[in-house]
Design brief:
By secondary structure, the chain is an alpha/beta fold. It has 28 helices and 29 strands. Strand 10 and strand 11 form a beta hairpin. The structure holds adenosine-5'-diphosphate and magnesium ion (MG). The site of magnesium ion has 3 residues, from helix 21.
Amino acid sequence: MTFVIINDVMFMKRCEVDRSKLSPGMRQYMEIKDQYPEELLFFRLGDFYELFFEDGILCSRELELTLTGKNAGLEERVPMCGVPFHSVKPYIEKLVNKGYKIAICEQLENPKDAKGTVKRGVIQVISKGTIVDYEMLKAYDNNYIASILDINGMYTITYGDISTGSLYILDVIKDKDKLINTILNLNIKEIILYENNDVELSLLLKNTYGIDITISPYYLENQYEYLYKDLKEMRYILGIKHLLYYVVVKELKDVSHIREVEIVNPLEYLEMDVHTIRNLELFETLRLKERTYSLIWLLDKTKTAMGSRMLKSWLSNPLKDKKEIISRYDMIDKLRQEFILKDELITELDEVYDLERLCGKTMCGNLNARDVLQIKRSLKVLPSILDKIKKLGFNFTFNDEQELYQLLEKGIYEEPPIGLREGFLIKDGYNKELDELKEIRSGGKEFIASLEEQERKRTGIKNLKVGYTKVFGYYIEISKGQISQVKDEFGYERRQTLTNCERFISPALKEKEAMILNAEEKIIELEYNLFMEIKEQIKKEIFNLKDIANSLAMLDAIISLATCADEYSLVRPEILDERRIEIVGGRHPVVERVSKNEYVANDCMMNEDVNTLLITGPNMSGKSTYMRQLAITIIMAQMGSFVPATSAKLPIFDKIFTRIGASDDLVSGESTFMVEMMEAKNAIVNATSDSLILFDELGRGTATYDGMSLAQAILEYVNKEIACKTLFSTHYHELTILDELKGIKNVHVEAYLKDGNVTFLHKVNDGAVDKSYGIHVAKLAGMPKDLLDRAEEILKYYEGNDKKSPVLENTQVAFNFDEPEDVSSPVLDKLKDVDPLKITPMDAINILYELKELSKK
Ligand code: ADP
Ligand code: MG
């Protein structure tokens, strides 16, 4: 036999065990494990889930649990690692997040009823994309699993969140970038591929983006047909069958809470690529990758997890349909008028739990009585919420499920344990048999008293007693003096003779005794069964509960937007049919909240004939912020929210592209300039005249000439060929002459100088800026004074105000410049290469520094 050696301890491998020697329990384990070779098998033994062999070793390493051994009939003990049943969740969560799949194997019968080994079987498999326990999931995120099929030159992505029971299909043209973009935007956690014909793609998804990949060449037949019976497209049907095979057959999930499939039409929504979503910090910040200080962080005032997810999906999918957008505005207006109703609704929504995920848990998780109480409490407030929805005139409506509420109110005990086999699940008064059993359990003493009374009357023996010992159980005790009065017809059987008395039992007594002793066990069993019946009742209402969840989510999300409108002084935008932007007093909502300084509001005026705003201004003046502000305003407007401005008139955009700042794709290791060009290309290829493009300091990542030429060429192209609204910030002042072209307008962010210090006004005004204040910014950054003075000197020379060569002056000690022609100086050589009109202030400082270094030699 070979051994795995870990920490100098030897452990046997599962595949090399002589199975004939195994104990029956371990043999059962082996048979089940054979069916789940890739999963970690959590094998239920009493109060623990045990993992054996390699699973045990791995689990002890990953979870830092003690590795022990179990006697299984072999010479060596089998390596074993145990996780307590009661606190299994965090362990599962940790393992699943690391990409392991877990097969949960339960006892399928009560050990007491079992003949021989208790029947066991895997009841479900959990993987990253199919967690249903709301405790393990982020409340504000969906958890998607997807099937990707490559059919007829199209990627069909069928994706769903099993925890909420939602299912979608989306077509993506066969372009790998698009596919990855979509997968990342949706934040899909696990992907099922039909075959591995594109190894590169699956490796990329797996290694670079941490998405779990499974190959599964199967389709689910003859189940859940209602999900696709009305679909015409074969590839959609196949997509559903492919995803469901994995979820239903491989992972043993009941997905009856998936009510329907939604075919997503990307054309209905404002298109944003990953870069845009990242650059605009819609869901997380660029630097820390955190939700805090992102736009969703600002806008999410929801009270329920469902509402939070709904709001997120609104922000991910801003609308393009004017009517739909306006209907959201109308609801916000209405809520602001009826603020008392709104505040009451907020209080009531606070009582609502994650109904959507509770539905998921009901269908394919371990629903416990605490979860059911959450359902109950959520249902309680429904009539009142529904009433207010009607008063507001909103068209979300649902059945308020008060019958189910009554059932749960009557049935479920208020402080139940997590487990289902400990009793305390069901309230008194719900079930007669249960009440009787409880009476018997608690009424042992009363029973004795009443039996004693009854038997004394029946037999006429005055001092007859009923007692109990552990060894004998219940007995009837009669003192020696009265023994003669015991008659055969009493049915007493003598059991024990003591000095002063004799003890008897009777059939009635034994029967009662059995009842009392069994009562506990029966209570547990009965409570379990009653709980399961209640669970069935919940299952029957599942579609309706999902309807409720959906309505509450929308209500919660719209209330959240109304609250934001109040709290952040947002204004209702006017949607224009012509391509004109007219924003007065626009703000960046997050910067405004977070920045310590007063935020300077700015207008953005772009008439129909203006395509491009060419933005100049010193570093740190607020160019990038101004650009982001416009994009965010548009996105907010199209998601149906009011916007951060004094007034706003906007057309509807179809796509937004951004190339902002240094969002180096560190993971995929592409260089800044390459990323820059790829993002720019993406915009140029895909934008239409209804799109918005933000190009922030394009060309910065390469040499000056290259950069400027490319920037100009791109600017001209976009302005002429695409003619969409474009904000183009640049540090190449030379480009400002382009405003002679039709469609291009110069604006600049103002700064002013006082006593040699630059002050940023953050105010955007018409026209180009004449000065770039690079040296002043360097001063702000704390550069040495000598160096700054020197830079000033050089600048004067380059600007032509000072004819004296700055190099000459500074280097005369080191070189003899009386006969400059004869001297070959590295400083001069370097200088000859410099075109002062085509370098940035930063370049100037760098060159200056180099010159200084050279001059020292
Ligand atoms: P640039 O892109 O011109 O270098 P940024 O847009 O990055 O400048 O802005 C620089 C800093 O100025 C930011 O930290 C931001 O907080 C602040 N800022 C920008 N715009 C404004 C504004 N309108 N009002 C107040 N502060 C602003
Ligand atoms: Mg900037």
